[in-house]
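User: Here's a chain of 644 residues. Predict its fold as tokens.
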Amino acid sequence: MTAELVRGQNHTLPQTRLEIRVSAGSPVVAGATLGDERGTVHGAEWIAHPGSHRLPGLEVSRQAAADHRLAVDLDALPDAVHRVTVLLALPTGAGRPARFGAVAAPFVAVTGLDGAEIATFTLTGLDSESAVAALELYRRQGAWKVRAVGQGYAAGLAGMLADQGVAEAAELAASIQEAVAAGLARSVTPPPRAPDSERVHQAAGPAASGDGSGPPAGPQVPEPVSGPTPPHTETPGGPVDYAHPRRQTSAPPPPPPAAPAAEPGRPAQPVAGDATGWSMDERLYNQIWGMFEDLARAVAAYRSAVDFAESRMDQELERTLSDPRSRIGGTGDRAREEARAKRDELTGRAREALERDLAQLAAESAVVEPALPASYAGWGNPVWHGYRVPMEIPMALRIGDLGLPESADLRIPLLVRLPLERGIWVDSGRTASEEAATVSGDQLRGQAMETAVALAARLLAVYPADEFSVHVIDPAGAAVRALAPLVRSGVLAGPPAAGAEGVSSVLARLTRRVDLVQMAIRAGAADALPPDLDTGEQLLIVNDFPHGFDDRAVTQLRYLADEGPSVGVHLLMVADREDARAYGPVLDPLWRSLLRITPVAADHLADPWVGHAWTYEPLRPPRGSNVLEQVLALVAAARRGGLR
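Assistant: Prediction complete.
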């Protein structure tokens, strides 16, 4: 049974080989210190961090990321070690949060090697701190225990290391942050690819000359980013799983014949569906993930080259300034000019390589985008003009686009697998993005609800008639305008629920459905379900949370988020985390379980392999287009029996 710890509480560890998993709302640096009986850390060699990630019995991540797994073998630790302190710190840099109070509360879990949780701890109550001692594994009378610490430091990593007795703590903290900033953490070798997820690259394509150090195959958000489940993203609940779900154990058919070979020196022409898969939809799915991989790898290589060029210039300038002879005549000035010229040359070559890769990816995107089926396509794709209600569920759904600053015009579709394996949270609160700063709070909340409605419409459109129902909770009636397309078309399971009574009624009905279906599955008695029970997929849209919710309703909502997806009940929250802060850690598991998206462009989705913060952009119907209303009308007609 999992022990949910609070600050100061301890728990006995039943085994000595462990994993410590960290989930945060934005990229963090994870490390650990080894202490003696008094907790004193005797030097840099007693600290595992991204620049020195492995010690006897301990291994940590080599990068800043929103999700970490730290490996611990307590039996392999030196005899002098009596305490292992897990530390988290925010990476420094422009545009990054400077305090833990500005991000979602980090979550730490101690698990066995089989993934079973032993103890968990949510680090609530942090504000101005930029570093925190999260957990402590300590030896007591021959046995090991874990204690929830949660001690934050406004002085940052340097203050925390100094508190543990580290000499020259400031210099060591600076070197750790430099290691992160310089991209040392991006040198992680990815796990082996599955044979059926290998990307088929064009000759001289964007990934033809890489070192294979990109993220593993299978987007998530990218679930692409999932991968195409691409980047798990940075979500308040942690990272997005890039593994391709439900892979076949046998190799799928090869891709269709490639385009004719290009002339020497010229890249081959891209082809839609140029990836392995059992169907064209799966080939396109894998191709989109491959494009995500290529973009991630190309940008990582470019950033690494720029970092190297800057570092080399700094070293040459430092040597020049430390040489007294450079102060005579113009020797120093010439050395500076030469160092900057070398930097510019290296940076220029890296940019040229990146531009080549981006051009090839842009050409591939131009071919792939028009070939996408409706479930993968944006609202502006002509495929929607020929839309018909499908007879079966597609393998994935597009919920937005992903991009990086270096590729301003290139966007990779963010695909999530169907049926949904986790709920979605549309963040209606103020974000740090430039676009969010240009709109008012009321406009942001309105756009968040419009994003949710557009997403619900896409889900309705890609499911067969009568196999997907949408329920809405709008306690204060604040979303009447945004909900109009769903209400007018008649596709909702019932009118939007308002007031505390409406909230209670909808939650009770869906909770009952989850309970009954779970019991039927466990008993193997699906035929015994009540005849009035809708066994199709259900989506609950919750607006303006926590208005209208009492403690019982909050508990039911958490239950639906945890247990609902496995039996076809999915949650789509439209909420501002700050509005629910009064509930404290009670809601943290709920936020962690949802995939966070935003109504405006924001760089909040993080991948854990190359450390990119991906910019997510929601899907919106073209201005002045009635495509959403037309699609909903066809769905409603199919449900009435007018179309099949």
